[in-house]
Write a structure and sequence with these properties.
The structure holds three protein chains of three kinds. Chain A is mainly α. Chain A is built from three helices and no strands. Chain B is 69% helix and 2% strand. Chain B is mainly α. Chain B has one domain. In chain C, α1 runs antiparallel to α2 and α6 packs antiparallel against α9. Helices cover 65% and strands 0% of the residues of chain C. The relative contact order of chain C is 0.08. Among the domains of chain C are: 81 residues, Four Helix Bundle (Hemerythrin (Met), subunit A) (Up-down Bundle); 55 residues, no CATH class. Chain C contains nine helices and no strands. Classes of the chains: A mainly alpha, B mainly alpha, C mainly alpha. At the A-C interface, α1, α2 and α3 of A face α1, α2, α3, α4 and α5 of C.
Chain lengths: 101, 389, 222
């Protein structure tokens, strides 16, 4: 008998909160990105847990799509970061005010 | 007995017979030992064969035919000073050699070495583990092995290693895509991800039913090229190109950590040869005779693996290193399109013969159109540049 | 604790949870972006372990291949490529209210999630929509494949389009503007830059710029 799903959900909630705090607190764009990945992983963990609890493969299929979307998001996001860094030496999230018209 | 085990180990699961646990432990230990010893022999073999090809003698002092040379080198490295560069990131610098060593061993765990053996009423397979996701584990491990090289170069805090590691990461990720595609073909044909299942699916007739023939030779060649690039073996060893990068990612390493990188490289060579044999050459499949039945598959496996080990040494002796742009061109413009197209062909042929023919024709037409488009585009571009100056 | 689970299962869960949370705190607290990325890898591995523990074997493998093998490597690649691997000074904080506010919001959010988990009665009992996750003959791989290629075929195709768009976007963003004057890409760098390549594709695939975008797609596409 496996660990009850509630424990997994609690773990995912904590992981999500940690990621959210990181996103709010850190200023380095790359680290903020990593924190988003943490939050996505928390969501994935929740989905897989529900998939097991409900005995429905749909949750796992959704995780599959989340992975794809995460990859696409990281590609474009890092492309943006590279483009920004090419113009400025040291880009933190605060420096993005240059995007104002 | 069980109560004792339970008292000793809270993790002990009462559903498993203790003999199976013992067998599992023995398998792991034996596999690790065999791999280490074969690395030792492989280094000696490589040096000997290369020196034969270059009309030299090679190592001949330590032991008969110099077979203990590796041991001597190992002892020497072990007693050398372990340098830690001033500007190194200490933790990562120490972590990196292990990160390159572990994947090499873990991927060997899924390789079926022989058939099924029964010892004292316990039947087990000659294979450390047969997980249901089998071959995906190989892909996972080969993507993890990037970390060792990458972090080693970065954490050294020095220029050339960093260049080497940036090269390595780009190279290894580029070729991983082609690697995955070729594995897809094997999985399509075998209908399973488990390595044991893949080997079994090739075991009908000797040679003709191997994936080497069934997929057409092309995927095998693609896989071989991709895996050579993945291991950073020559001719794809730009990561440690001596002429350009001093020693590449391990320039700053010394003593036992340096030895670990070499151990990982040769372990990877052996593991990947074994994986090629598993995926394309039927693994331990081959004619067997009625005495000592368990031995023949193992011998077949060893023989086939040895062929590839020799091939790698040969490649190293014969081929010059690629330039970096050639490497990227080969990966992105040749290997990936070709493997993608071949996946379509294999899938279509599996559906039906006429589908296969149709897909081949469609692919040829598409490739022709694409080439035409590229040519038109480049001439237009040239004209534009003439006009603009 | 965890009375109804076997010792092995609880041990795996606790172990995985420790790795996950340790890694997560590491990401948030480390001053060096490379260390943060490594900590992220630890978290991803922990999540993969918990996937396996919940019989999602295929997803665990894909998690390692895509996340650890491609996404984080891409992060590291960008960090090294741009040379931003300096230590950050975390003590310096331009907005004094930001941290307490963030902590308060996180606690609030966590409380909300936990309350939802405790109160919500909608998440129990087996009522399948797509298909069983357990007890399939082919295991989770076959069940997942069946779901993705039948029920979710349209989203699957849509993700293919998404990936192509992402690749094009990444190439456009990351490639240096190919100007009339010899830019920095031709001045320094690769030997290929010396002679003008006749193919227009050559520049987009200049390992540093076009590369990462395409890597991702190929990774996920398989």
């Amino acid at each position: 008998m496996s660990v009850p799903g509630g424990w997994y959900l609690a773990l995912a909630a904590i992981l999500f909160s940690v990621g959210a705090v990181g996103l709010l607190v850190r200023r380095n764009v790359l680290v903020m990105f990593m924190c988003i990945e943490l939050m996505l992983n928390a969501a994935n963990l929740t989905l897989v847990t529900f998939s097991r609890m409900l005995d429905d493969i749909g949750g796992q299929a959704l995780v599959f799509f989340v992975l794809v979307v995460a990859a696409a998001e990281v590609v474009v996001g890092l492309g943006l970061v590279v483009a920004i860094f090419r113009r400025r030496e040291n880009a933190t999230a605060d420096d993005l005010h240059i995007l104002k018209g | 007995m069980i109560s004792v085990l339970r008292a000793l180990d809270p993790l002990y699961n009462p559903g498993v017979h203790w003999a199976e646990l013992v067998i599992a432990v023995i398998k792991v230990v034996v596999a690790f030992g065999v791999l280490l010893v074969s690395v030792m022999l492989m280094i000696w073999f490589e040096r000997k064969v290369i020196s034969d090809m270059q009309a030299r003698v090679g190592p001949n002092r330590a032991g008969p035919f110099g077979i203990l040379q590796t041991m001597a080198d190992g002892v020497k490295l072990f007693f050398k000073e372990d340098l830690l560069p001033e500007r190194a990131d200490r933790f990562v610098f120490k972590l990196a050699p292990y990160l390159s060593l572990v994947p090499a061993f873990v991927s060997f765990a899924i390789v079926p070495i022989g058939g099924v053996v029964t010892v004292a009423h316990h039947t087990f397979e000659l294979q450390v583990a047969d997980p249901p996701i089998g071959i995906l584990l190989l892909l996972a491990m080969s993507s993890i092995s990037v970390y060792g090289v990458m972090l080693a170069g970065w954490s050294s805090g020095s220029k050339y290693p960093l260049l080497g590691s940036v090269r390595a990461s780009a190279q290894m990720i580029s070729y991983e895509a082609a690697l995955g595609m070729t594995v897809i073909m094997v999985v399509l044909l075998g209908g399973t991800l488990s390595t044991r299942g893949i080997v079994d699916s090739q075991a009908h007739t000797f040679f003709a039913s191997w994936n080497l023939i069934r997929t057409g030779i092309v995927p095998f060649l693609l896989f071989m090229i991709a895996i050579t690039a993945e291991m950073n073996r020559p001719p794809f060893d730009l990561v440690e190109a001596e002429q350009e990068l001093v020693g590449g990612f391990h320039t700053e390493y010394s003593s036992i950590r340096f030895a670990m990188f070499f151990l990982a490289e040769f372990m990877n060579t052996i593991t990947m040869s074994a994986v090629i044999v598993t995926l394309f050459l039927g693994g331990p499949d081959g004619p067997r005779f009625h005495f000592v039945t368990w031995l023949w598959p193992v011998l077949w496996f060893l023989g086939k693996t040895l062929i590839f080990l020799f091939a790698y040494v040969w490649l190293r002796a014969a081929l010059p290193r690629l330039r970096y742009d050639q490497l990227m061109d080969l990966g992105w413009k040749v290997l990936i399109p070709l493997s993608l197209g071949w996946v379509l062909v294999v899938a279509a042929v599996l559906v039906g013969r006429w589908w296969g023919v149709a897909v081949i024709l469609a692919l040829v037409a598409a490739a022709g159109l694409l080439m035409r488009a590229v040519r038109v585009g480049s001439t237009r571009r040239a004209q534009m540049e003439e006009v603009v100056g | 604790m965890l009375a109804s689970a076997t010792a092995v299962d609880s041990a795996v869960f606790v172990f995985g949870a420790m790795i996950i949370l340790g890694g997560a705190f590491g990401v948030v607290l480390s001053r060096n972006p490379v260390h943060a990325a490594l900590m992220l890898v630890a978290t991803l591995f922990g999540v993969a372990v918990l996937f396996i523990e919940q019989q999602a074997n295929f997803l665990a493998a894909v998690q390692v291949i895509v996340y650890a093998g491609a996404i984080v490597v891409l992060f590291l690649f960008v960090i090294m490529f741009l040379g931003v691997d300096r230590l950050e000074n975390l003590a310096e904080e331009p907005l004094p209210a930001q941290r307490p506010l963030a902590a308060a919001m996180a606690v609030l959010g966590l409380a909300g999630l936990v309350a939802l988990g405790v109160e919500g009665r909608w998440s129990v009992g087996a009522h399948q929509v797509v298909g069983a996750a357990r007890g399939q003959s082919g295991g989770d791989v076959e069940a997942l494949g069946r779901a993705v290629f039948t029920t979710y075929l349209f989203p699957f195709e849509a993700t293919a389009a998404l990936l192509v768009i992402a690749v094009v976007g990444a190439v456009v963003l990351a490639r240096r503007p190919s100007g009339r004057m010899p830019g920095p890409s031709e001045a320094g760098g690769e030997p290929a830059g010396a002679q003008p390549s006749p193919l227009p594709v050559g520049e987009g695939e200049d390992s540093s710029s076009g590369g990462p975008g395409e890597l991702e797609v190929e990774e996920v596409a398989r």
